[in-house]
Design a protein that fits this description.
Elements: H1 3-14, H2 27-35, E1 44-48, H3 60-69, E2 73-80, E3 86-88, H4 109-112, E4 121-122, E5 126-127, H5 161-167, E6 173-177, H6 185-202, E7 207-210, H7 214-223, E8 228-230, H8 233-242, E9 252-256, E10 258-259, E11 262-263, H9 267-275, E12 279-283, H10 292-300, E13 305-307, H11 311-320
Parallel strand pairs: 1-2, 1-13, 2-6, 6-7, 7-8, 9-12, 12-13
Antiparallel strand pairs: 2-3, 4-5, 10-11
Length: about 325
């Protein structure tokens, strides 16, 4: 059984009303809230993979575009190549988003960097195979045809994680440790250890690291304890169902709107998380529509950050409602 299937089974067997686990804040949780800077970083537009319905996922083009339009934080995924280079890629294989094939871990960086990461991108639809050739407006931009004003061909390839950090020295970054498959724990550990070494060298702490794999996240924390965490599936499930506090180092709970048919996001959940000292960030990715209604609903539940595939839409909503932003006064959306 895969990790996700195991968690889904646990949810089915153990689902409880959130009110049963929404315990009052303690002195310890009050101190945790005071010590967690991410609780004051709100409301974040955390462009998911740079905004995968508006730009080719996990590309420098997407990240640059998202930051330019107003995104407060970049959300991305980290995989590793055969020669231990950390690259920004969601899937373990190259087939989904590029014109390459096979597992990225089986390829050296010199091969990966030549690929076109906009090959399967369709505007307003995201990554899509099988569309008419004319739909792939950015296909070939990696090689300079078409030329996209304000961007370079390299902006349309798979980037190195180090390139993202160098390009955005003052933009917070949310990183998900990825592996080859749920049952390949070693691949998650490999990527997590490479990430810890890189972050220790870079010295930045405006970073949150997460993973579906709890063991990889725990291992990462022992190597880079200064970096804030968002817990993995098992730890998050234990918190949601039974109120068990997540591992030391946790600064944010990054949750779907729903999971396996169960509602996760609610005002009560956010209130409990805040009382325990954790920020709440919401991702969508098939758990709820990426649209105006969903974004407004999450704001009304007092989420600290949203991870939209349509960052332009979220930015418009935040502006129209004059919502508070990091370092800027505004309307508190859930009062």
């Amino acid at each position: 059984m895969t990790l996700r299937a195991t968690v889904a089974a646990s949810l089915t067997a153990l689902a409880l009303p959130l009110a049963l686990v929404a315990t009052p804040a303690t002195a310890d949780s009050d101190r945790a809230a005071d010590a967690n800077p991410w609780l004051s970083q709100r409301v974040l537009n955390m462009a998911h993979s740079g905004g995968e319905e508006e730009a080719p996922t996990n590309t420098m083009y997407a990240f640059k575009r998202a930051v330019k339009l107003g995104a407060d934080m970049i959300e991305l995924d980290a995989q590793s190549t055969k020669d231990k280079k950390l690259v920004v890629l969601h899937n373990a294989t190259l087939d989904e988003t590029t014109n390459g094939k096979g597992k990225v871990v089986a390829q050296k960086w010199r091969t990966v960097k030549k690929l076109d990461a906009a090959h399967w991108f369709v505007p307003k639809q995201g990554t899509k195979h099988g569309a008419h050739a004319a739909a792939y407006k950015l296909r070939g931009a990696r090689d300079g045809d078409p030329r996209i004003k304000g961007y370079q061909p390299d902006d349309f390839r798979i980037p190195l994680l180090s390139e993202v950090f160098a390009t955005f020295p003052k933009v917070p970054i949310n990183i998900e440790i990825k592996g080859t498959s749920d049952d390949d724990a070693a691949s998650f550990l490999r990527t997590g250890r490479l990430l810890a070494a890189m972050l220790n060298k870079v010295g930045r702490t405006d970073v949150i690291v997460t993973s579906f794999n709890d063991a990889a996240l725990a291992d990462f924390h022992t190597l880079a304890p200064q970096i804030g965490l968002a817990p993995g599936l098992n730890a998050l499930t234990a918190y949601f169902l039974g109120g068990t506090l997540p591992p030391v180092g946790t600064v944010a709970l990054q949750v779907p709107v729903t999971f396996s048919g169960f509602r996760v996001m609610s005002k009560e959940f956010v209130a409990k998380a805040h009382a325990d000292g954790y920020a709440v960030h919401v991702w969508f990715s098939g758990t709820a529509p990426d649209n105006t209604a969903t974004y407004n609903a999450m704001l009304d539940m007092c989420a600290d950050g949203l991870m939209p595939s349509r960052p332009t839409t979220l930015e418009r909503i935040l502006d129209d409602r004059e919502i508070e932003r990091p370092g800027e006064p505004g309307v508190h959306p859930c009062t």
